[in-house]
Specification:
This protein has two helices and five strands; from the N terminus they run H-E-E-E-H-E-E. It is of the alpha+beta class. The protein has a five-stranded antiparallel sheet, with helices on one face. The relative contact order is 0.21. GO terms for molecular function: catalytic activity.
Protein backbone atom coordinates (compact mmCIF):
# COMPACT_ATOMS: atom_id res chain seq x y z
CA UNK A 1 0.00 0.00 0.00
CA UNK A 2 1.37 3.41 -0.95
CA UNK A 3 1.74 6.22 1.54
CA UNK A 4 -1.45 8.18 2.15
CA UNK A 5 -1.94 11.62 3.62
CA UNK A 6 -2.53 9.85 6.95
CA UNK A 7 0.80 8.02 6.75
CA UNK A 8 2.45 11.38 6.11
CA UNK A 9 0.70 12.81 9.19
CA UNK A 10 1.86 9.84 11.30
CA UNK A 11 5.42 10.35 10.02
CA UNK A 12 5.20 14.14 10.64
CA UNK A 13 5.84 14.84 6.96
CA UNK A 14 2.81 17.12 6.89
CA UNK A 15 1.25 19.01 9.81
CA UNK A 16 -1.99 18.16 11.60
CA UNK A 17 -3.72 19.46 14.70
CA UNK A 18 -3.10 16.32 16.80
CA UNK A 19 -5.26 15.91 19.91
CA UNK A 20 -4.22 12.39 20.96
CA UNK A 21 -1.40 9.96 20.27
CA UNK A 22 -0.20 6.66 21.66
CA UNK A 23 1.86 3.75 20.34
CA UNK A 24 -0.88 2.44 18.04
CA UNK A 25 -3.11 5.36 17.09
CA UNK A 26 -3.38 9.05 16.40
CA UNK A 27 -6.33 11.48 16.56
CA UNK A 28 -6.44 14.88 14.89
CA UNK A 29 -8.88 17.57 13.81
CA UNK A 30 -10.48 17.10 10.40
CA UNK A 31 -9.51 19.88 7.97
CA UNK A 32 -13.06 19.89 6.54
CA UNK A 33 -15.22 19.62 9.69
CA UNK A 34 -18.83 18.53 9.38
CA UNK A 35 -19.65 19.43 13.00
CA UNK A 36 -18.27 21.80 15.65
CA UNK A 37 -16.08 18.89 16.80
CA UNK A 38 -14.83 16.63 14.01
CA UNK A 39 -11.84 14.43 14.76
CA UNK A 40 -10.28 11.59 12.81
CA UNK A 41 -8.89 8.65 14.77
CA UNK A 42 -6.51 6.43 12.82
CA UNK A 43 -4.38 3.38 13.50
CA UNK A 44 -0.67 3.86 12.91
CA UNK A 45 -0.69 0.56 11.02
CA UNK A 46 -1.96 1.28 7.51
CA UNK A 47 -5.18 -0.66 6.81
CA UNK A 48 -6.85 0.43 3.58
CA UNK A 49 -10.53 -0.33 4.26
CA UNK A 50 -12.74 -2.17 6.73
CA UNK A 51 -12.56 -5.09 4.30
CA UNK A 52 -8.81 -5.27 4.92
CA UNK A 53 -9.02 -5.61 8.70
CA UNK A 54 -7.42 -8.91 9.68
CA UNK A 55 -8.07 -11.00 12.76
CA UNK A 56 -4.96 -9.69 14.50
CA UNK A 57 -6.24 -6.12 13.96
CA UNK A 58 -9.29 -6.60 16.21
CA UNK A 59 -7.75 -4.99 19.28
CA UNK A 60 -6.23 -2.20 17.18
CA UNK A 61 -9.61 -1.29 15.66
CA UNK A 62 -11.39 -1.61 19.01
CA UNK A 63 -8.78 0.75 20.43
CA UNK A 64 -9.95 3.45 18.01
CA UNK A 65 -13.41 3.33 19.62
CA UNK A 66 -11.87 3.41 23.10
CA UNK A 67 -10.00 6.57 22.09
CA UNK A 68 -13.27 8.09 20.81
CA UNK A 69 -14.90 7.53 24.20
CA UNK A 70 -11.87 8.88 26.05
CA UNK A 71 -11.76 12.02 23.92
CA UNK A 72 -15.52 12.54 24.29
CA UNK A 73 -15.15 12.39 28.06
CA UNK A 74 -11.97 14.48 28.19
CA UNK A 75 -13.43 17.14 25.86
CA UNK A 76 -16.72 17.31 27.78
CA UNK A 77 -19.32 16.12 25.26
CA UNK A 78 -19.73 12.46 26.23
CA UNK A 79 -22.96 13.06 28.16
CA UNK A 80 -24.58 15.10 25.37
CA UNK A 81 -23.75 12.40 22.84
CA UNK A 82 -21.65 12.11 19.73
CA UNK A 83 -21.45 10.19 16.49
CA UNK A 84 -18.76 7.81 15.27
CA UNK A 85 -18.58 6.83 11.59
CA UNK A 86 -16.21 4.67 9.60
CA UNK A 87 -16.79 4.66 5.85
CA UNK A 88 -15.73 1.76 3.64
CA UNK A 89 -14.97 2.34 -0.01
CA UNK A 90 -15.54 5.09 -2.54
CA UNK A 91 -19.33 4.72 -2.71
CA UNK A 92 -19.53 5.20 1.05
CA UNK A 93 -17.42 8.35 0.94
CA UNK A 94 -14.04 6.95 1.98
CA UNK A 95 -11.58 9.39 0.41
CA UNK A 96 -8.35 8.13 2.02
CA UNK A 97 -7.43 4.45 1.83
CA UNK A 98 -6.39 4.20 5.47
CA UNK A 99 -9.21 3.35 7.87
CA UNK A 100 -10.27 6.26 10.03
CA UNK A 101 -12.96 6.70 12.62
CA UNK A 102 -14.80 10.03 12.44
CA UNK A 103 -15.76 11.45 15.84
CA UNK A 104 -18.40 14.18 15.49
CA UNK A 105 -20.01 16.25 18.24
CA UNK A 106 -21.29 19.65 19.23
CA UNK A 107 -24.64 19.52 17.44
CA UNK A 108 -27.67 17.27 17.23
CA UNK A 109 -27.57 14.34 14.85
CA UNK A 110 -31.15 13.32 15.68
CA UNK A 111 -34.30 13.34 13.57
CA UNK A 112 -35.37 15.62 12.09
CA UNK A 113 -31.78 16.46 11.27
CA UNK A 114 -30.09 19.64 12.42
CA UNK A 115 -33.06 21.09 14.27
CA UNK A 116 -31.27 22.62 17.19
CA UNK A 117 -28.62 25.26 17.39
CA UNK A 118 -25.00 24.06 17.35
CA UNK A 119 -23.42 24.06 20.77
CA UNK A 120 -19.86 25.20 21.28
CA UNK A 121 -17.64 22.59 22.85
Amino acid sequence: MSDTIFTKIINREIPADIVYEDDTALAFKDINPQAPVHLLIIPKKPIATINDIEEDDRERVGHLFWIAGKLATDMGFAEDGYRTVMNCGEHAGQSVLHIHLHLLAGRSFGWPPFTDTPKQV
